[in-house]
Amino acid sequence: MTSYSLVDPPRGDDASREQKKSESSTGSSCRGCLKRWSLITLYVILTLLFLLFVVVPILWKTSYTMQRMFLFLNFVRYPYNVDLAKPSQAGIKGGMNFYIDTEDGARLGTWHILPQHLAEEGDKLSKLEKKDRFDEWVRNGDPVVLYMHGNSGTRAASHRVDLYKVFQKLNFHVVAVDYRTYADSIGEELSENTTVTDGKAVFKYFHQRVQNDRLFVWGHSLGTGVSSHFVSELEEEGILAAGLMLEAPFNNIRDEVREFPLTQMFRFLPYFDYCFLDSLADHGLYFASDKNLLKTTVPILILHAEDDKIIPLKLGKLLHEAVRKRGDKYISDMKTFPAKHHYGHKFICRAPELPELIENFKTASMNNFKNRIS
Ligand SMILES: *[C@@H]1O[C@H](CO)[C@@H](O)[C@H](O)[C@H]1NC(C)=O
User: Fold this and answer.
1) Can the peptide bond before residue 10 be classed as cis, meaning omega within 30 degrees of 0?
2) Residue whose CA is at the smallest distance from ligand 1 atom 5
3) 87-136 pLDDT, tens per residue?
4) What's the 3-state SS for 251-283?
5) For ligand 1, what atom is nearest to the CA of residue 284?
6) What segment(s) does the record annotate as region Disordered (predicted)?
7) Of the residues 149, 173, 229, 345, which is catalytic?
8) Does 345 qualify as catalytic in the annotation?
9) How many CB atoms lie within 10 A of CB 155?
């Protein structure tokens, strides 16, 4: 709709301006070229409209490559100036880089960041010593949080690092991972299923070393869809996460694509649902957290800013409504942040009350753990 109103008026103005100019200077001799220019302009506009409202929908409908590019944005690799082998370059103390292998042959770049009380000691170690000591330290009783990031960028992106630091100060071990094909992670076939495979691999790696009741998951944005999916699959296998924190989540990818600002200009098309929404499922893209989490007993904390422009608060609320259907027996909390703080889609990490929210959720989840296994 907007593109019609943006495109049409200038064409009229230009045409009349052109006309006046040509009449005053060269008179009627250039009537022909004026007509030709108007026709060319018309063709250009029609071609653009055709590309935008016919070719783009068909491409989206038929091409998984296009859906994958836009949804995952894995080719956007900011920040470009950080050597991922050195977490210290992102301003992190007590960090170690290593790689986790998945069953299907992917290799995931991972950071393990020590809790604050160990960070200084950790930084004194040589690279070789780190691997052993970090492994030993992760069993020391401090809680662990796995951070599953949203689309684009790497585990070194600054809004992510800011959140790692919040957890580090609360004496959590932080584990930050890049899904296959992001950053320095390698592997075949980026898809919803393979992000789930990656999440499970990382979870299991730490699950072998840490008590369940201390192993938490944090998802942000697209990562909320990934973590809800793999936490649910793990629970089916009898492996429980202690708690799941969802920052700026959506209920399912179909609703998210419908609400996303960039797709608004296509909404008037009678074939919008058919081309843009139905095709997600054709390519195995559901990220149906509203269904996946119903199958779980995991304590859930949803965090959403009112001024989130990428994933509207509405979708976070729909997810909250869905998980509350599990009943009062299970923790399903939601906290919204007023628009006046401008946290938007990425900066809930700046909320001064966040550490307390996390602490309370941690305690409630750990206390709740025994009820879930009995
Ligand atoms: C994803 O995994 C599910 C369950 O394992 C399977 O049924 C489905 O076919 C897979 N989808 C794709 C696109 O591979």
Assistant:
1) no
2) 193
3) 999 999 999 999 999 999 999 999 999 999 999 999 999 988 988 898 89
4) CCHHHHHHHCHHHHHHCCCCCHHHHHHHHHHHC
5) 13
6) 1-29
7) 345
8) yes
9) 27
